[in-house]
Design a protein that fits this description.
Immunoglobulin-like; membrane; mainly beta; glycoprotein; single chain; transmembrane
């Protein structure tokens, strides 16, 4: 038997699909880098006025977080977590852009910029892809 969905039903379905696809934040932001180059990941969040600190993490395949960099909003110093694969390769700017020097295939991960206020945690994920030259 052939389904006879009315035009209004099809219209509603199309609108729902369009809303899901076009909704901001649903798409993945991807940064591409060549092997050996510097990966530059902007935080992509507006810095809130009551910001306490910003942090970057990446996610392991099982979804567990590994924190790699921290910057207080009041202090100018940056703290890098003890993650051997990123030792001496990270740089976190004042606008919370994370740079990773000497890109490797193992850097292909989902990284997340986190801006933390007293009331909220804002997150912006970035997918990193590394290609051979």
């Amino acid at each position: 038997m052939e389904s006879k969905a009315g035009p209004s039903c099809r219209l509603v379905f199309c609108l729902l699909i369009s809303a899901a696809v076009l909704r901001p934040g649903l798409g993945w932001y991807t940064v591409n880098s060549a092997y050996g180059d510097t990966i530059i990941m902007p935080c992509r969040l507006d810095v809130p006025q009551n910001l306490m600190f910003g942090k970057w993490k990446y996610e392991k395949p099982d979804g567990s977080p590994v924190f790699i960099a921290f910057r207080s909003s009041t202090k100018k110093s940056v703290q890098y977590d003890d993650v051997p694969e990123y030792k001496d390769r990270l740089s976190l700017s004042e606008n919370y852009t994370l740079s990773i020097s000497n890109a490797r295939i193992s850097d292909e991960k989902r990284f997340v910029c986190m801006l933390v206020t007293e009331d909220n945690v804002f997150e912006a994920p970035t997918i990193v892809k590394v290609f051979s030259k």
